[in-house]
Amino acid sequence: MIQINNLQKSYNGNRAVDIEQLTIPAGESFGLVGNNGAGKTTLFRLLLDLLKADSGEAFIKDQAVARNENWKKITGSYLDQGFLIDFLSPEEYFNFTGKIKGLTKEEIQLYLADMEDFFNGEVLGKKKLIRNFSMGNQQKIGIAAAMMGHPEIIILDEPFNSLDPSTQIRLKQLIKKQKANTESTFLISSHDLNHIAEVCDRVVILENGKIVHDLHTDNDTLASLESYFAV
Amino acid sequence: MLAIQFLSHQWKQAKRSSIWQRNLAVNIIMGFFIFILFAEVVILAIYVSDKWHEIITTGEPVSVYHQAVAWYFAGMFTMRFFMQKLPALEIRPYQQLPIKKRHLIHFVLVKGVFNFFSLISLVFFIPFAIFQISYFHGTSTAWIWLLGLLFLDQAINLLVIYVKKQMVTNLKIVVLFFAVLSILALAEYTKWYSFSSTIAGFLDYLLIHTWMFTLLPVLAFLLYALNFEYLKQGMYLESFQPKSGREDKYLNNQFSVLDRIGLIGELIALELKLQLRNKRTRSMLMLAPLFLGYGFFFYPQEEYGPESGFMIFIGIFVTSILSINYLQYSFSSEGGHFDYFLTLGLRMKDYVSAKLQLSTFLIIASYIITIPYIYFGTTIFFTNTACFLFSLGIINPMILYFATYNKKAMVLTKGSAFNYQGISAMHFFIMIPVFILPIFIYLPFKWFGNPTMGLIVLGALGLFGLLLRPWFIKNIVGNLYERKYIMAEGFRDKS
Q1: Touching check for B40 and chain A: CB below 8 Å?
Q2: Which of chain A's residues have a Cβ under 8 Å away from the Cβ of B489?
Q3: What are phi and psi of A2, to 5 degrees?
Q4: pLDDT in tens, B403-451
Q5: Domain span at B270
């Protein structure tokens, strides 16, 4: 599904991302961990063609992301608040996103009704602009928009951040449900080793832009992640 | 000591603001203009003060000056009210430190004294104190007079701060202000009641009973105390939370009519919401009618004949300034969600077309609104029509093309007066070809004695540009693809 060849990106002489080879098969949920500055967000931005790579390429379904736009139709993403249109209400934002993704009004309504549990009654019908919601609720809005239309690939950068504990659990359930129903490929980064070990089939550790460990999740994953990051 | 710490933080904030670091050219241009303007004002003030007793032939020179002072303060109150930013220290980072609250408040209020408008008062009063008051009333009285008026100026400053903290500037208040000022001016003109004589009488009285000048500092300190108390009451975190309730009203504007024209309609509706729901774009819109009124300044004047090149400038200006204003910043005002647009799978062609359609609408609206200028002659009407077509066909896509070179996000939540965030030298330079080009096309025809032909050529070029619109769109889209990484990276940096 996703293929990366010799992808490199530097800032002011510092390697932010330097990946020789990475393949993510369809339906895999791929976890990315690493300390601050390890290159997680940079890697996601390169995958979404928001940054120009110094060399190498990223492919989605065998097509280079920087050379065509077909991947956009099958990819949903939420990296940061730059993905929110803050002067809209959540309803307006979902309607806009849904229409661009080619959903009908009814499909959008159906999807939002489905997400009501995840929103926990704190998002819809509030008559508020997105910029006036709390960080946690903004995060929920962004994640829900990314998963709209059940895209084949979903990329989330630190989705558990600023969510309350119950919503973190709901998000894990949501990801598992989505995986079971539609076989979406998930790319998730997080600082929370517990969550990542729980929802991902595979966890990759980045350090200074390089892949230092590539683990398939089993009962020992959490322990080996913890020992890697122990100080 | 604490004040010095605060000042150093403020200085660092100003110095490290990206405006200084990235816009050297714009700073030099602005700095140069401000310097020239300031020097001119100072020289003018000195000259007028020196010759005041010769200029004023009827009445007491000082008394007449006091009348001018009355209007000066009325104008200053208005200017300060609308243009001056409230003095503020971002106090949240300091609030949890062991710093006494009153130190913070004193700092904020004293900082408010030092601003551009206080400087104007110095320029306005000092020369007159030197050249006139000391001549008529002696040096020591001149000093007292000067200090008194400066205190009065600060009293007005503090009053503005107090009033402004109490209410939010909106259109109603603007109208109210101008209504009060117009009534005062009308009363003065019809000799029914003279506001300036009242104030001048008071100031003349103070000059005779010099000790009474102490009233003015007392007034200033009272207002200071009032502000101090008010700030002390209100200095809690919740007063800094955005008031979300007030924004509900925007949700009624859905522009659902635009749904019918599909995705492009959806994008235009989004643009309209952006323009109407953000403070900065809204205050720019409020200024728009002023731009359309430019014709009134120039059409009645004899020295510009109806066929001069200058009329082309006015024609281009009134028909296209609104769309230029919108298009120049149309990418940078979307800086906050540009990443989203890039990943959403939006067709760039739709994105660009939506912008051009909205600006086309703005040009057509400007043209229709300015049709009444026909009152100044049919030549002006034909000139404006030619300029309208040229704006539509050539200038419109040209500006959007250049807008893709903009890589600074515009922060939309602050008002637009004196706000240069997100504006670069580019925006000034782009104006030059936009206005020079049509004049260059027109002038040769005029020199060869056929200005009408010049207008026809301008209009025809405009129509030709309209036919070429798909080609323009293709080029803008191409440039957007070329520059999207640079734009997105610049927009992410919101300092």
Answers
A1: no
A2: 51
A3: -120, 135
A4: 888 888 888 877 666 666 777 667 777 788 888 899 999 988 888 888 8
A5: 259-492
